[in-house]
Amino acid sequence: xxxxxxxxxxxxxxxxxxxxxxxxxxxxxxxxxxxxxxxxxxxxxxxxxxxxxxxxxxxxxxxxxxxxxxxxxxxxxxxxxxxxxxxxxxxxxxxxxxxxxxxxxxxxxxxxxxxxxxxxxxxxxxxxxxxxxxxxxxxxxxxxxxxxxxxxxxxxxxxxxxxxxxxxxxxxxxxxxxxxxxxxxxxxxxxxxxxxxxxxxxxxxxxxxxxxxxxxxxxxxxxxxxxxxxxxxxxxxxxxxxxxxxxxxxxxxxxxxxxxxxxxxxxxxxxxxxxxxxxxxxxxxxxxxxxxxxxxxxxxxxxxxxxxxxxxxxxxxxxxxxxxxxxx
Length: 328
Description:
The protein is 44% helix and 16% strand. By secondary structure, the chain is an alpha/beta fold.
């Protein structure tokens, strides 16, 4: 399939079935959390990095490692701590006394899927090193630049309730995450199933169902999902309303400090395409845009002190935008 060849229904159904296989494998281990697993999968097939936020014990780390086990790719986990150094992630040069030369020892970032566990515990220099890898898909060690693997995906977790010993992520880095997934508590029935499945038992085995070539093939197909001009206008209406709500007829200006960046426009489009293909469609509908809207926008819309004083969150602002912008 070339990039210019439109996706057809048969091909969309085929890809949807392959992605359902991945979800079926993850459900052997992860109970509930379907929205989180779909979000991880959407990020994977669009090449976008993902930030997962939730209180401890909600299987964020387990979800990422389980997804990686269903893929025939490399996977490395990095536990972020306050004493972590950039070289602990990217690698460093080592002096060989016998030869008198410096050799490069590559760090754990040289893999396909990187789990950055508790990412907000690392200091600014470490964040800067990771930022180059996320944005440029390359790493500089000792003045030499090395390309990273393809596919390359950073899946980061952070704890929103414990602030001691943490470093807030810079807005520039947060914007690099295509999605920010909020992970909530399971239902009572789901937690009972977790108890029965996990207590005293080893984790179930999962099968590898997609390799790197398959991921690249699906990403290429995502780019060919049809997006109507009305859908494009709808996406632009949402993003521009976050920057100038008054022009959109919304009384949100005192609550929004900064609106969404152009990356939000691109992310909404690509993730809407990905969700369409996950549902077996070769075209995007408004429901796709609304379904991914919160995950794309919640970390890109900065609220004012006035909004905080009213106990409003960026999710409240995003929901107001999605509820009030006219759907085509």
